[in-house]
Predict the structure of Metallo-beta-lactamase domain-containing protein.
Amino acid sequence: MRLTVVGCTGSMSGPYSAASSYLVQARGVDLDTGRTRTWNVMMDLGPGSFGALWRYIDARKLDAVLFSHLHADHVGDVISLQVHRRWYPTGPLPPLLLAGPEGLMGRVRGIDGYAPDETFEQEFVPVQLADREPLQIGPLTITPYAANHTVPAFGFRVEGPSEGDSSSRVELAYTGDTDTCDSIQEMANGVSLLLSEAGFTRADTARGIHLTGGRAAKIACEAGVESLVLTHIQPWTDPKTVIAEAREEWDGAISTAYAGATYSL
């Protein structure tokens, strides 16, 4: 299993990266063809990310897009995806699995001003996420966990084959946008890699919105993860500040995400 950071800037696209968007890939058998292939799943698709995705894969080969929540910085480029699938030059592409919280398709319609009766059935197969109800996408098992944010939101625990040994299973977790909560702590337990938002620093006193580097590191420490990757850092925040706050809470492997970073599990 491999994770690629397509975009990681917090709350908006930034000068060096698109907004939140992460590509998970794994090799596995396609039951429709009986052949082994690479499966491609996106977690979030923030502004600027769909074009950036083309640097890493043929966008026609996406298997699913999962949205942690419906804020614009995580769903904004879904309309680029919709246009790509409906108007591809050689003809419409097959409907793509699109999973997210309740209200996802209404959000898609609203972004580009579509009529209320537009179903997007030509482009998408919508699935409503539910807490701890796993999705199976090829060799990947993806389980949503309820998050602590200002709107309904989920983190994702992803299990798949190890890139080095396909007979072994590995796990990563992505917090989406959240503050601390029991559910996200449970999601992180024992994973190889925790991709955690750190949208705030300790100077931000509001709670129930975002994690800080320090709070993310506490989750990592209590969960016994192997490595922590901090993401969703605002473009006006120095990543060194976030790292420093995290290191006060945990002495494990900590880094910050950047566009193009890849992690092999």
The chain has one domain: 2-264.
